[in-house]
Amino acid sequence: MTTIRRIYEICDSVLRRGCYLSEEVNREISADRTDASFLTAVCYGLFDKLIQIDWILDRFLLKRPKPAVRNILRLGCYLVRESDMPDYAAVSTSVELCRELGKQAVCGMVNSVLKQVASASLPQGREEEALSIRYSFPRWIVGRYLEHSRIYSFGAGSEQKLYISSADLMTRNMQRRVEVAVPIHAPHIRERINHILDVYFRDTAKARELKSDGNYERFPDYKTGLSAQEQFMAEALENADTEKPRGEGWLHRKVREKVTRWYRSLTSDLD
User: Fold this and answer.
1) DSSP 8-state assignment for residue 226
2) Could you give the C-alpha distances from 197 to 7, 167, 201, 232, 258, in angstroms and in order?
3) How far apart are CA 260 and CA 62, in angstroms?
4) What phi and psi values does residue 181 have, to the nearest 5 degrees?
5) Which of 23, 110, 222, 237 is most deeply buried (CB count within 10 A of its CB)?
6) Residue (of 155, 153, 173) closest to 163 by Cα position
7) Nearest to 198 by CA among 174, 232, 159
């Protein structure tokens, strides 16, 4: 069996039978390590680009192909656009895969579509749909702003312990970096941070609920529900008209003064 056929069988198992990609890749490599690096890179790369690939293919397909044929096109599109394989070789390999799978009837269509995908341009702009396609993320994940949650809340009411941190809960931050978490005591800052948490917990537009089987599900009102980013943008615009403006550099001066006092208190103890 050729390496391209092995890649196709792995991707087809994941897409049509719901198998886990990592398990299928590991099983295949354990049985045959031929071209293991190439096989692994293409399998994972194809799923990283799957949303973008489907969007590109839909531009050139006149009708919806059968699942097996669509998976051939997905693999071919990835090889044409993302791999180091020359375009003509990627197209030829995909057509040969059609014949190997007994689908000679679609060879002409596969050849025609894949010859066009190499020059397909992606949508520009910062709209959610354009960002979703360019970066190949589900549209419900994409928002106007990049988010890294760094608020940590333990307990409730008078017993609540509230922190802001330099780190989110990523493995690299927990195991390979030195990070800092700062307790929040000032009532007005605690109130503002708790408001941020409350808005996120009420978000049903972008959020998903993790079920016991490991799947994420939309909330019933995801089309009309609250979006945290839109809520915060609306609040920022409202506060811009009501907050008393401060001189440029005010916050920096306050922080610098506080750090200077703290540093002097440390050095005086050493003296």
Assistant:
1) -
2) 44, 17, 6, 11, 27
3) 68
4) -120, 135
5) 110
6) 153
7) 232
Q: 198 near 206, Cβ under 8 Å?
A: no
Tokens of 223: 């089309």
- The mean-pLDDT minimum among 72-86, 113-127, 134-148 falls in 134-148
**Identity at 132, one-letter amino acid code:** S
DSSP string of 28-86, one letter each residue: HHHH--TTHHHHHHHHHHHHHTHHHHHHHHHHH-SSPPPHHHHHHHHHHHHHHHHSSS-
Q: What angle do CA 209, 221, 47 make, to 5 degrees?
A: 50
Torsion 87-93-96-102 (CA) sign: negative
DSSP characters for 154-173?
ES-GGG-EEEEES--S-HHH
User: pTM of the full predicted structure?
Assistant: 0.66
Q: For residue range 21-68, list pLDDT tens digits in order.
A: 999 999 999 999 999 999 999 999 999 999 999 999 999 998 999 999
Q: How long, in residues, is the chain? A: 271
